[in-house]
Predict the structure.
Amino acid sequence: MKIICIGRNYASHIEELKNERPDEPVIFLKPDTAVVQKQFPFVIPEFSNDVHYEVEVLVKINKVGKYIDAKFAHKYYDEIGLGIDFTARDVQAKLKEKGLPWEKAKAFDGSAVIGDFINKSELGSLDSMNFELTKNDEVVQKGNTQNMLWKIDELVAYVSQYFTLRTGDVIFTGTPEGVGKVNPDDVLEGSIEGKKLFRIQVK
């Protein structure tokens, strides 16, 4: 199982972090050890003092695909989910300063929350889905997939040019503005179109 993540896919988040707008999708990977097991908390790693939540719409691949045309990409997934890309922002800043890869900041153990999945047929247009993240019952991130720089089918097609997609692979499609720090005892909950797909506590 591969976790393929897309960075800088919402203009508002790019501005929020004062990053440069990319000409094509930014891709990085997380290993399967990044996934927080169901019913377990997210544990803030000892090497960071500034871990941020980033809520993201997820796509679960349902069959093997390579060099997929965007117009056929919808055939390679049936389910949509929601998750969190936890980011050690202080570690990432140091890596970016030196032009180094982000993996230590993005792919550490427990850095990926993968919530429940729902059939895409229940969601209407995937290019106009509302989703949100609450922290301690307060909404901290709200997004709509219509604001993606690259839509879901475009991402599936693009990623497949570089990586063979296999059944069970998950694509994280990017985060909107509103990212922020987590602290011990925070409770994070995420929903798409009012359907709650995960709840996780921070330790």
Remarks:
- The radius of gyration is 16 Å.
- The chain has four helices and 13 strands.
- The first helix runs from residue 11 to 16.
- Residues 10 and 115 are 21 Å apart (CA to CA).
